[in-house]
Amino acid sequence: MDKNARLLLFRDALTVEVGASCAKSALELLESTLKRIEHENVQNGEEVMTISEGNEKFVQEYGVGGLYIPLIGHKVYINANGALKITDNQSDSVFLEKENNTSEMFKEVVGWKPKFFGA
Fold first, then answer.
1. Radius of gyration of the chain from its Cα atoms, rounded to whole angstroms
2. Phi and psi at residue 105, in whole multiples of 5°?
3. Direct distance between the N- and C-terminal alpha carbons of the chain, in angstroms, rounded to an integer
4. DSSP secondary structure string, 24-35?
5. Please, are residues 104 and 98 in contact by the beta-carbon 8 Å criterion?
6. What are the domain boundaries of the chain?
7. Which end of the chain is more exposed for a tag (fewer CB within 10 A), N or C?
8. pLDDT tens figures, 4-30
9. Which domain of life is it from (predicted)?
């Protein structure tokens, strides 16, 4: 199964999951859901998709207590309360927006910009 099809399965699986209570549990939800989708659908020789761990170099704080995770094709924004948004890098369109465990929707952090890491 190609990556685009697996990404759609990932999005569909996340929409039925219970939302997270904090940024760390939201990241864990993303990681475990993607790992399950990849385990069930990657064929021999296909590259497995992963999500950066919260302590990796390019992961940044998003607002107070949130996380920003830049990926190859997407950007992940997680509020401190566990609500999240994933955008497509090419179109900047929303790939997924998910409420937290108390049904609070994702909120943009006004004025926030990612730090640039030069080569």
1. 14
2. -80, 160
3. 34
4. HHHHHHHHHHHH
5. no
6. 3-98
7. C
8. 999 999 999 999 999 999 999 999 999
9. Bacteria
